[in-house]
Specification:
GO terms for molecular function: acyltransferase activity, transferring groups other than amino-acyl groups. By secondary structure, the chain is an alpha+beta fold. It is built from five helices and seven strands; from the N terminus they run βαααβββαβαββ. The protein has a seven-stranded mixed β-sheet. Helix 1 crosses helix 2.
Length: 173
C-alpha cells in the first residue's frame, strides 16, 4: 500500500527547491490567523527548516509534506502533522491548499492520505485539528474525513477584528 500517493496527488518530503513557495505561503499574513505565526520568516530561517526536516519525526515532533499534482508535478499545498506525541499516540493536522487549487478535491485527497499514513504507518491512535469556527470549508473538509467536533475554545484567537472561536476536531482510529 502506498500511503503517500493518491489518484490526483502525492505527498512528498520538503525539498530545497520548495524555498520560494514556502516563503510565499509562510509570509502570507492573511493565513497567520489559522496557525501560530506572529511575524514573517526569513529565507535563511526557512532554508534551515528545510535542511533540518530530515530528522526523525519522533525527535522533531512534526512532519511537513508537500502536496504535489501527479500530472504536472506542481506543488499546490502542504499538509502538516505536528505536536506528535508518541506516548499518547496522537498528533495535530493542518493543511494549506493554494487558492488557485482550492475546491477541486485536492485537500480532501491530501487529508485522506495523511490520515492513512498517520494511522496505518505511524500507528497513531488519534488526530486532531483546531479550526476557526468561521472557516466553514475547513470544518466541512475535516468532517467529511471522519473528524468530529469535540469542543469549542471561545475567543481563542485574537485578530484585529476581535477574538475568534476555534472548533476542536478529532478523529480516533
Amino acid at each position: 500500500m502506498s500511503y503517500l500517493s493518491g489518484t490526483n496527488i502525492y505527498l512528498r518530503a520538503i525539498e530545497p527547491e520548495d524555498l520560494d513557495i514556502l516563503y510565499q505561503w509562510e509570509n502570507d499574513s492573511s493565513l497567520w490567523v489559522h496557525g501560530c505565526t506572529l511575524a514573517p520568516f526569513s529565507k535563511f530561517t526557512l532554508r534551515e527548516y528545510i535542511q533540518n526536516s530530515c530528522y526523525d519525526i519522533y525527535q522533531t515532533r512534526q512532519l511537513r509534506m508537500m502536496i504535489t499534482l501527479k500530472k504536472t508535478n506542481e506543488t499546490i499545498g502542504m499538509v502538516d502533522l505536528f505536536e506528535i506525541d508518541p506516548h499518547h499516540e496522537r498528533g495535530a493536522v493542518g493543511i494549506l491548499i493554494a487558492p488557485d487549487h482550492q475546491r477541486k478535491g485536492f485537500g480532501n485527497e491530501a487529508l485522506q492520505l495523511m490520515c492513512s499514513y498517520a494511522f496505518g504507518f505511524l500507528h497513531l491512535h488519534q488526530l486532531y485539528a483546531h479550526i476557526l469556527q468561521e472557516n466553514k470549508n475547513s470544518l466541512k473538509l475535516f468532517s467529511e474525513n471522519g473528524f468530529i467536533s469535540c469542543g469549542l475554545f471561545k475567543e481563542w484567537v485574537k485578530t484585529e477584528n476581535g477574538y475568534k472561536n476555534v472548533v476542536v476536531m478529532q478523529r480516533i482510529n
